[in-house]
Amino acid sequence: MKLINTEEAVGHVLCHDLTQIIKDVKKVTVFKKGHIVKEEDIPVLLSIGKDHLYIWEKQEGMLHENEAAEILYGICKGKYIRPSDVREGKIELIAKEDGLLKIDVEKLHMINSLGEMMIATRHSNFPVKKGDVLAGTRIIPLVIEKKKMDEAVKLAENKALIEIMPFKKKKAGIVTTGNEVFYGRIKDAFGPVIRKKLEEYDVEILGQKILNDDPEAISQAIRNFISEGAELIICTGGMSVDPDDTTPTAIGNVGARIVSYGAPVLPGAMFLLAYCNDEIPILGLPGCVMYAKRTIFDLVLPRIMADDKITQEDLASLGHGGLCLSCNICTFPNCGFGK
């Protein structure tokens, strides 16, 4: 790379894209990397403030920003992801399918700590749709040492930093408990909320069973749904510590492995997660799901729908960012909840 006067640039090759910015109007690429400067280009270059230009001179052991950006894209790219065009050394990663976004946060931090390069992403474990921009990569200088890019590749360990886990079609059964609902003293408010949440995904609802607080009846309803082919069980009601709230006991009696009863999320502290036969998730939803706009349910459901196994450590990590501010106008997921 060599710096020369623009008026002496005719016949030379530009080593990076040149843009023109007009406030509130546009930002366009006037000349692309690799363009051979012509006589008629000089007035245009001067009009965008380019009195000097960097022209390309290939140096051993150095990479141009576009070459390096391609390497960063290769480090990041996982399944169901495509690249944008390279512009000014930047490549964006774009979703090819709806699904759950997974980021290797530890390696992302390690590579960003190398300096002179950057990868900026969305938050991990949140749903994305086909066409969404997931991340952007670029090199900070115009050229970078090849050995530095080799170091980034080594840190990645041949595993993509960014992946999409497509959502799966599932069959679900809803078990609603509580004497007050079973005996008709109050109308069930859980069912409509759960159905609306599941409408965002490809879910076939096998049915909703409304029961009293008999733990054996609750356990049997769960077993029946599983025998009918349910791949997800959602239990509502009976999740507090009152003596009449027997849903956690009933879930345990099915033989399910309890991952956690309780989560550091508000709303949603009394959430229960279990797996039956180590593959069928059973969710015990607290009462807040009935009335709060966003709860623990919104944070775990995308992972459940992508068959992303959730651990106790995963739930514990939700404490940082686990406080929903219950804003008058909800902007979730474009807020800090769950992040």
From TrEMBL:
Keywords: Magnesium, Metal-binding, Molybdenum, Molybdenum cofactor biosynthesis, Transferase
Segments forming domain MoaB/Mog: 173-306
Cofactor(s) the record lists: Mg(2+)
Pathway the protein takes part in: Cofactor biosynthesis; molybdopterin biosynthesis
Major enzyme class: transferase
Entry EC no(s): 2.10.1.1
Single GO molecular function: metal ion binding
Biological process according to GO: Mo-molybdopterin cofactor biosynthetic process
Reported function: Catalyzes the insertion of molybdate into adenylated molybdopterin with the concomitant release of AMP.
Name under which the protein is recorded: Molybdopterin molybdenumtransferase
Record lineage: Bacteria, Bacillati, Bacillota, Clostridia, Eubacteriales
